[in-house]
From TrEMBL:
It comes from the Bacteria. Keywords: Antiviral defense, DNA-binding, Endonuclease, Hydrolase, Magnesium, Manganese, Metal-binding, Nuclease. Its cofactor is Mg(2+); Mn(2+). GO terms for biological process: defense response to virus; maintenance of CRISPR repeat elements. One of its GO terms (molecular function) is DNA binding. This is CRISPR-associated endonuclease Cas1. Its EC number is 3.1.-.-. Belongs to the CRISPR-associated endonuclease Cas1 family. Mn(2+) binds at E166, H234, E249.
Length: 343
């Protein structure tokens, strides 16, 4: 159980939620695991729930406290709310900003600042940890380029220019990505990003990781009452969770890329875990996907200190915290959206 930004996160499995007076009580096999006053809560996020009492749901609906249910893997299941009060205002604000490209750019640039900043510090950490295995001068040069692009992004008010700057940063970062593969280099190499379809082992894993991250982010956005399909940087397209793609930008490198690199460098995957289809697409075997998913769920349990909140949380809660921060910004509680800046 963790309270962040007036939201209670319940991550223990097989927990039943009940009401006692003005308190939420967590029960497991009739044993009380904890209790917390409800009067300061805005939402309750429960992962892998056993159930919640009708009394608790009725109380929360009356007090405008949402209860959101997710699977243990983070897939969104349902959101229990009372009368539409704050949620409709939040979504209308989201839609108004999305319709205005200038205002959208001012929001979206913080996502891109977070992405480029995190890419920069991935490179800086590699040069610190493996100075004899990478070209330090090249990494430092790319890091400098990324710092210069961040300055331009911070003042950008045009979506097309913002996409161009993000593209420049991605090209610079991808130039040294292959050097971060420190093991199994004969079987795993990265020359460029290929998406549809992925044409090598590394791109196959990156695509899978980005899909998982996008799903986690969409679930987190639904949990706070935002529309995952209406974005600011990524524009409307039927069936595309544009806001989830927006918000995951800052986590691509630090969350997904580093995860894929760790699987390669720790030899958790090998060349035998992939095969190429007739159209050239490289896909993972069923067994490899199962191991990938198991490792992904394990990574989500690892603890970090959130750079904005200064509190220890699991990696799996980062999408939820960033979604909460975005919702607070849209409501006017924050002057600007604080991106996740890893270092």
């Amino acid at each position: 159980m963790k309270k962040l930004l007036n939201t209670l996160f319940i991550t223990q499995p097989d927990v039943y939620l009940s009401l006692d007076g003005d308190n939420i009580v967590l029960l497991k096999e009739k044993e009380q695991l904890g209790r917390l006053p409800l009067h300061n809560l805005e939402a309750i996020n429960s992962f892998g729930y056993t159930g919640a009492s009708p009394a608790l749901m009725g109380y929360c609906a009356e007090k405008n406290i949402s209860i959101v249910f997710f699977t243990m893997n983070g897939r969104f299941l349902a959101r229990v709310i009372g009368k539409s009060r704050g949620n409709v205002v939040l979504r209308k604000k989201q839609y108004r900003i999305s319709d205005d490209e200038v205002v959208s750019a001012k929001v979206a640039r913080n996502f891109i600042v977070g992405k480029i900043f995190n890419h920069k510090w991935i490179l800086e950490r590699i040069t610190r940890d493996y100075p004899l295995r990478v070209d330090v001068s090249q990494f430092k040069e790319v890091s400098k380029q990324l710092s210069e692009i961040i300055i331009q992004v911070r003042n950008c008010e045009d979506l097309e220019r913002l996409r161009g700057l993000e593209g420049q940063a991605a090209i610079s970062y991808n130039k040294v990505f292959n050097q971060m593969i420190l093991q199994q280099k004969e079987d795993f190499s990265f020359q460029f990003r290929s998406r549809r379809p992925p044409t090598d082992n590394v791109n196959a894993m990156l695509s899978f990781a980005y899909t998982l991250l996008s799903n986690d982010m969409a679930a987190a956005l639904e949990g706070v009452g935002l529309d995952a399909y209406v974005g600011f940087l990524h524009r409307d397209r039927p069936g595309r969770a544009s806001l989830a793609l927006d918000l995951m930008e800052e986590l691509r490198g630090v969350y997904a890329d580093r995860f894929v690199l760790s699987l390669i460098n720790k030899k958790i995957v090998s060349k035998d875990d992939f095969h190429q289809k007739e159209n050239g697409a490289v896909i993972m075997t069923d067994d490899a996907r199962k191991r990938f998913l198991g490792a992904w769920q394990s990574r989500k349990q690892e603890k970090i200190t959130h750079p904005y909140l200064g509190e220890k949380i699991s990696w799996g809660l980062v999408p939820h915290v960033q979604s909460l921060l975005l919702a607070r910004f849209l409501r006017g509680d924050l002057d600007e959206y604080p991106p996740f800046l890893w270092k």
